[in-house]
# Entry
Amino acid sequence: MRLAVQLLFTVLTNGYAYGFVRGKIYQGSLKYVCVPGLNCYSCPGALASCPIGALQALLNQKGFSVPFGMIGFFFVVGSLLGRFVCGWLCPFGLAQDLLHKVPVFEKRKRLPFHDILKYGKYLVLVFLVCAGSLFLFGGYAKVPAYCKYLCPSGTLFGALPLLGANTSLRSQAGGLFLWKLGVLLFIVVLSVKVFRPFCQYLCPLGAIYGCFNRFSLVQIRWEKERCAACGACEKSCPVGLSVNEISRSSECIRCGRCVGACPQKCLHFSTADSSRGETKYYEHR
Amino acid sequence: MGFWKNSRQYLWVWGTLAGIVFLGIGGLQGQFAVIWQKAVMICMECIGIG
# Structure
């Protein structure tokens, strides 16, 4: 079911087919709003904006103004969904999921030194997205440092389709494009071996939504009294979380594998019902 | 104790409300127009040309 939701959401939010044919991008008013996941607005099919790109666009303005619009967006989406977005609604997450299904290499959940490397995404957020966009200049204009130097989603969904269909752009590609292509290839190969390496170690959007995981509306609840401590959930968790950490940890992407794996059915997707103060449970298939 | 427990249970409501307020402030400051202007042009940096 999750794969179907991921595919459907990716197709719906990248449905501007004309752009892929002509090597152009959608220029309509839907781009006033952002999609919740990492989805480059220079993807020819993109119908809405990328939240990290939008944040950088606000930080790239002359002078400094607090990017209230994007802070508000992150508060709303984070408070409602947390990293459920990563697990279910992110196109680049879907790409990594599909790559991890390729039957090559012995699979790993994490990289060595995971407990240190997992903070990489916070460093990317602070230094590349925020500080980089505020203080890094290209000529007289500030540059969106994260998009320019790191974002593999932009290369995969933006650069490759655009350069494939637009010959005038193709002739301008140089060293920077090769650097970004190298970053993408590294992430692609690593994704075959390790589960979602970009999400776990580098994604600034995951870092933001992770801060909301503990109290967001959508949760995975654990009924401790029914738990037989069989460890099935921990074995199934693709990011290697313990049952105590599932849903509460900022690393949990709410993929729901633990819910499906629990033989006692003591893990559930849930929402807190604000009108009655009860918790609603949903079975996940 | 009950008050704090309930408050924590509904933190997502406060977060959402705060987000809506911030969105409103951003809208009043014209920030969504800035985002739109950036998003409707091909971002040369994003595709590794700029």
User: Anything to note?
Assistant: The beta strands of chain A are 137-138, 141-142, 218-222, 267-273, 278-282. The CA atoms of residues 119 and 204 of chain A lie 10 Å apart.
